[in-house]
Specification:
Two copies of one chain form a homodimer.
Chain A: H1 7-29, H2 33-49, H3 51-67, H4 72-78, H5 82-97, E1 105-110, E2 116-123, E3 126-131, H6 135-147, E4 151-155, H7 161-177, E5 185-187, H8 194-200, E6 209-213, H9 216-225, E7 238-242, H10 248-260, E8 269-275, H11 279-292, E9 296-299, H12 301-306, E10 311-312, H13 315-318, E11 326-332, H14 334-345, E12 350-354, H15 358-367, E13 372-377, E14 394-396, E15 404-406, E16 412-423
Parallel strand pairs in A: 3-4, 3-6, 4-5, 7-8, 7-12, 8-11, 9-10, 9-11, 12-13
Antiparallel strand pairs in A: 1-2, 2-16, 14-15
Keywords (chains A, B): Amino-acid biosynthesis, Cytoplasm, NADP, Oxidoreductase, Proline biosynthesis
Pathway (chains A, B): Amino-acid biosynthesis; L-proline biosynthesis; L-glutamate 5-semialdehyde from L-glutamate: step 2/2
Subcellular location (chains A, B): Cytoplasm
C-alpha cells in the first residue's frame, strides 16, 4: 500500500480487517484442538524453513531503523538472528503443547428440577494486539490467541513491518495447511498511526479486547483511548515489605533478587519498605546488600537518619518505576504502615512481604489490593511461565476478567449450557 | 440540594461521592463475613421498622409522577405497599444467607520450586448502579454489592428519589450498626441527569464497573457512553429452535412456556425456528399451540405457504424484542440454518434447542455464541435464581468477566497469593 493513503482509506481498510476477523472467529470458536495444534506446529515449521527470508526482511527493517537514528536498545529488540528465530518457533511449539482451554467445563451442578447446568469455556472472539517493534510478538501473540480459539488482529511497530510480515506469512501458511481460516491471524499491512486509532474504537464492534504490548506511553495511550476492554499494566511499581519478624538472610537474598535479577522487567521491585521495629536489626544489612549488588538507593529522611549518605527520596521517587538499578527505601510503621504506603503508591501489579509472623502475612494478603502477592519469595516470579500457566501475552493489573498473568485460559470467556428433559418454568 | 445546581456543582458532588466510595471500599474488602451479614440483617429490620416512612416517601413520589402524567405501568413499578416492602426486606435477608464469595480459594497449585500459588476471590471495588424508578433496586443492588465486599454508588430514577432515599436511610442504619463504613452504600442525592453522565466517566477512576438496570434506552446510553466496564444486556432476543428430532409434545409445552409464561422478561422467546424437515410434523401443531395460548404470530414466507393467514414477518421482526404476546416464526434448514439465523439476529442472551438427536444438541451448544444455551428446557429459566446463584443484579451478554446471570460471585475479582519459603528467581 502506498504512502499516500488517506484517513478514510485506513478506516475502510481496518473495518474490512475487523469484518474478516469476526467472520473467521465463528468457525475458529469450535475448531478441533487437533486442527489448531496442527496449524501451530506447521507455523513453527514454516518459520524454521523461512529463516533466510525472515532474516532478509529483518535486515531491511534494521537498515531503515539505523538510518532513522534509532538507539541501541531499540535496535537490539528489533534484531533477529538464528537463535532468536529458533526461539520463536520453539515458543509456538510450546503453545501447541498446552492444553486447549476451549470446551473445558469450569463448573457443573444440578438443580432440584433436574436441570443440569454447566459452565464451559469459550473463546473471547477477536483480540487486537498493539505492540512495538519486537517481531517475535507477531508469532507469540498470534499463536496464543489461536490456541484459545480467538481471531487476532496484530498491529506491530512500524519499524518492524518487514520482519513482522515475513513471520506473519509463516503463520498464515500454518493456518492454510491445517484448514483453518486464513483471516484468523491478520497483520495490519500499513504503518500509519491512524490504524491504531481505528483499532482502539473497536472496529465497529469487531474487536472484543485489546492487548497492548510495550512501554508506558503505548499502554497509556491505549488505556486512555480504547473504547473496548484492555488487558494491560501501565507499570509495575512493585514493593517489598520486610517485617521485623523476617529472617534477615532470607530478606537480603529476596530483596536483592527482587530488585537486581533483571531491573527492566515489570516484576522488579522499585521500593523497599522496612518495618520501623526492624531499624536496628534489618535496615543496615539490607541497605548494604543492595549497595554491594550495585544498586543505587534513594532514601527517606528516616532511613537517612540511620544511614546518611544516600540520595534523599522525593515524593516522585515513591511513584517511579525505575526499570534500573535504583530502589527507593522507606521506613514504615509495621504492616499497617506498609499497607498504607502500598495503597497510596502501588500500581497494583505485584508486592511481596518478607515475614515469619503469620498474622502479618495474613493482613498483607487480605489488605493489599494487587494482582500478585507473594510471601517470602521474590517479586520477579510475577510471570505466567513461573506460575505454570505456559506462555503469557502480558500481565494485567485491571480487576475485570483477567488479572495477573494473561495466558491462554485468560483469553477465553464462558457460557452456560443447560441440559433439560422438557422442563418449563412454572 | 436546590434545583439551581450547576454542572460544576454536580461534577464536584459526584467526584466527592466517588472518593468516599473508594475510601470505603478499602476496609470493606476485608470486612468479616459476620459484619457484612449483620449489617444486611439490620438493614432488613430497619426497612420493616420504617414501613410507614417509606410508604409516605413513596406517596410523595407517586403524587408527583401522577402530576407529571406518567403511565400505569410506570406507576405500578414505582408503587410500594406493605407486601412489596416485606419482599424487599426478605430479599435482603436472603442475600445475608448466601455464602460470602470473598476469600474463597478458586484454585491452588504448587510449582516444582515449592511455591504454593492460590487464586483467591476479592471484591471488585466500587460498583455504580444506574436504574430507573424502581425503589426496590435501591435495596437489592445495595445489598448484593455489599455482600461481595464492594462499595456501591446508587443512582435511581428521579421519579423515585423520595422512596429511594427512605430505603437508603435504612441501609445506612444497618451499615452503622454493624460498624461498617456508611459510605459503602451511597445514593446520589440529586435528580439531575448530569449525575449519570459523571458516573459514566468513572468519576476519576473511582468506579470499577457500571451496572445499568432498566429499559433499552437506559442500557443503550450507558453502553454507548460509559468509559468503564459495563455489565448489562441491551435486550434478550431469544430463539427456540425445534429440530425434526424433537418430541412434539415437549416442544409445544416448551415453546408456549418460553414465549407466554411472562412476555415482558428478557428470557422470553421472540423467535421460533422450525427445522424444514419438521414442516409436515411439528410446524402446524406448534403454530396452533401458540395461537391457542393467545400469541400473535409473524410468519416467514415459507411458514405462510404451509399455514396462510398470519401477518408476514418483515426483516425488522427478526430483530425485534417484542416483550409482548407476539412471536416471529421461520423455517430453517436444520441445525445449520438455525445456527446461521441465530448468529445473524441474536442478542447473545439465551437460546434453546428442542431435539432428541444428540449430534444436533452438540452442534447447537458448540456453535451458538450466547450467554445461556438450553437443551429441552424453556428460555424462561434464564435467571440467576433459577440457576441457584441467589439474587442477581442482572444478566450480562458481554463476554468479559461476567456473562449470564450476575450474582454475588460475578461481582468479585481475584488475586494470586504466592506462599514461598525464601525462593528467588534464578
Amino acid at each position: 500500500m502506498s504512502d499516500t493513503v488517506t484517513a478514510a482509506d485506513i478506516d475502510s481498510l481496518m473495518l474490512g480487517i475487523g469484518r474478516r476477523a469476526r467472520a473467521a472467529a465463528r468457525p475458529l470458536a469450535f475448531a478441533d484442538t487437533a486442527a489448531k495444534d496442527k496449524a501451530l506446529r506447521l507455523m513453527a515449521d514454516a518459520i524454521d524453513a523461512s529463516r533466510e527470508e525472515i532474516l532478509a526482511a529483518n535486515a531491511r527493517d534494521l537498515e531503515r531503523a539505523r538510518e532513522n537514528g534509532l538507539s541501541g536498545a531499540f535496535l537490539d529488540r528489533l534484531t533477529l538472528n538464528d537463535a532468536r528465530i529458533a526461539g520463536i518457533s520453539q515458543g509456538i511449539r510450546e503453545i501447541a503443547a498446552l492444553a486447549d482451554p476451549v470446551g473445558e467445563t469450569i463448573a457443573a451442578w444440578e438443580r432440584p428440577n433436574g436441570l443440569k447446568i454447566e459452565r464451559v469455556r469459550t473463546p473471547l472472539g477477536v483480540i487486537g494486539v498493539i505492540y512495538e517493534s519486537r517481531p517475535n510478538v507477531t508469532a507469540d501473540a498470534g499463536a496464543l490467541c489461536l490456541k484459545a480459539g480467538n481471531a487476532v488482529i496484530l498491529r506491530g511497530g512500524s519499524d518492524s513491518l518487514h520482519s513482522s510480515r515475513a513471520i506473519h506469512a509463516c503463520l498464515v501458511e500454518g493456518l492454510k495447511a491445517a484448514g483453518l481460516p486464513q483471516d484468523a491471524i491478520q497483520l495490519v499491512p500499513v504503518s500509519d498511526r491512524a490504524a491504531v486509532g481505528a483499532m482502539l474504537t473497536g472496529l465497529d464492534g469487531a474487536i472484543d479486547v485489546i492487548v497492548p504490548r510495550g512501554g508506558k506511553s503505548l499502554v497509556g495511550r491505549v488505556q486512555a483511548e480504547a473504547r473496548v476492554p484492555v488487558f494491560a499494566h501501565l507499570e509495575g511499581l512493585c514493593h517489598v515489605y520486610v517485617d521485623a519478624s523476617a529472617d534477615l538472610d532470607m530478606a537480603k537474598k529476596i530483596v536483592v533478587n527482587a530488585k537486581m535479577r533483571r531491573t527492566g522487567v515489570c516484576g522488579s521491585a522499585e521500593t523497599l519498605l522496612v518495618d520501623s521495629a526492624a531499624i536496628g536489626t534489618h535496615l543496615i544489612p539490607l541497605l548494604e546488600a543492595l549497595t554491594q549488588a550495585g544498586c543505587e538507593i534513594r532514601a527517606s529522611a528516616a532511613v537517612l537518619k540511620v544511614h546518611p549518605g544516600f540520595r534523599p527520596a522525593t515524593e516522585e521517587d515513591w511513584r517511579t518505576e525505575y526499570l534500573d538499578a535504583i530502589i527507593s527505601v522507606a521506613i514504615v510503621d509495621g504492616i499497617s504502615g506498609a499497607i498504607d504506603h502500598i495503597a497510596r503508591y502501588s500500581s497494583h501489579h505485584t508486592e511481596a512481604v518478607i515475614a515469619e509472623d503469620p498474622a502479618v502475612v495474613e493482613r498483607f494478603f487480605n489488605e493489599v489490593d494487587s494482582a500478585i502477592l507473594l510471601h517470602n519469595a521474590s517479586t520477579q516470579f510475577a510471570d505466567g511461565g513461573e506460575f505454570g500457566m505456559g506462555a503469557e501475552i502480558g500481565i494485567a493489573t485491571g480487576k475485570m476478567h483477567a488479572r495477573g498473568p494473561v495466558g491462554v485460559e485468560q483469553l477465553t470467556s464462558f457460557n452456560y449450557r443447560v441440559h433439560g428433559t422438557g422442563q418449563i418454568r412454572p
